[in-house]
Design brief:
This protein is α/β, with parallel strands linked by helices. The chain contains 13 helices and 11 strands. It has 2 domains: about 180 residues, Class I glutamine amidotransferase (GATase) domain (Rossmann fold, 3-Layer(aba) Sandwich); about 110 residues, Arc Repressor Mutant, subunit A (Orthogonal Bundle), CATH 1.10.10.60. Helix 2 links the parallel strand 6 and strand 7.
């Protein structure tokens, strides 16, 4: 069973810690009694959070042997961090453990040295400070999360949910991640490259994108153009593009590509369709086009993805 250890240092942000606990403990995989073993490892038997103290069953030594180490954010990035916490992170990295931070937890990863030479993110309000303190880390303030394989970092608050669901998808595939998202009453995780926040200028007219997005998802097999989408939405192409940028942080056609890739992931996991058939069903037209886009967004080929992420 995949063991997940969640660190609880002094000053931990309870929301970040609870997000990881709730998402991973509720994952259900057909045929498995439990998808994850989740433990919370406290810096001390009683951990001081801002409004209350946390009493944990496990100490830092129990983090050894975990397959994944989650490092939640800390309330005060200027507060001293114990060497015991940093050593726990370093030991996990040396052991090859997958490590993921939420929000300002990236400061703990950076302080331990494991982010040196890596790209990372954190809450947009703290990104410039992370870059200033740790120049060896390439800080990207404009994304929800960064996946470096064994090291992952996320932005603040809700982005922690996106990161956790992304890890569930990596471990058990899109169908299981979708069920976990429904249990958390949220959409399946947003793309890691999506903007952390989107400024919404006062619109000149109202356009609810949700019906348009649902229509696009139902038309993934078609050769949709910007003009066709705008016609369905009964707006000009310029207005459609502006509203997409305001409400999703990307363009209509880029959103469409992302939706097609996610549908392809689902079909590769849950059906016996050939790669060529998946390409046709998702609107890519050819297996070559699917492989190119799939490789850019997922980082592997459709064939390799199918082998790694079929339901267990």
């Amino acid at each position: 069973m995949h063991k997940i250890a969640i660190l609880a240092p002094h000053g931990v942000i309870p929301f970040d810690l609870a997000t990881a606990c709730d998402v991973f403990s509720r994952v259900c995989v057909p045929g498995l009694p439990a998808a994850y073993e989740v433990i919370v490892c406290g810096e001390a038997p009683s951990v001081a959070a801002r409004l209350f103290d946390l009493h944990t069953r496990f100490n830092l030594s129990h983090a050894s042997g975990a397959h994944t180490l989650i490092v939640p954010g800390i309330d005060d990035i200027d507060a001293p961090v114990s060497e015991a916490v940093l050593d726990t992170i370093r030991a996990a990295a040396a052991h090859g453990t997958r490590i993921a931070s939420i929000c300002s937890g990236a400061f703990l990863l950076a302080a331990s040295g494991v982010l040196d030479g890596r790209r990372a993110t954190t809450h947009w309000m703290a990104a410039s400070e992370l870059a200033r303190r740790y120049p060896a880390v390439t800080v990207d303030p404009n994304v929800l999360f960064v996946d470096n394989g064994k090291l992952l970092t996320s932005a603040g608050a809700a982005a922690g949910l996106d990161l956790c669901l992304h890890l569930v998808r990596r471990d058990y595939g899109a169908a299981v991640a979708a069920d976990a998202a429904r249990a958390a009453v949220m959409p399946l995780e947003r793309s890691g490259g999506q903007a952390q926040f989107i400024v919404h200028p006062e619109p000149s007219s109202s356009l609810a994108l949700q019906p348009v997005l649902k229509w696009m998802e139902a038309q993934l097999h078609r050769d949709l153009t910007l003009e066709a989408i705008a016609t369905h939405a009964a707006v000009s192409k310029r207005t459609l593009s502006r509203r997409f940028l305001e409400q999703t942080g990307t363009s209509p056609l880029q959103w469409l590509l992302g939706a097609r890739v996610k549908r392809a992931q689902y079909l590769l996991e849950t059906s016996a369709l050939s790669v060529e058939q998946v390409a046709n069903a998702t609107g890519f037209g050819t297996s070559a086009a699917l492989r190119a886009c799939f490789g850019r967004q997922v980082g592997t080929s459709p064939q390799q993805y199918r082998q790694s992420f079929r339901p267990r």
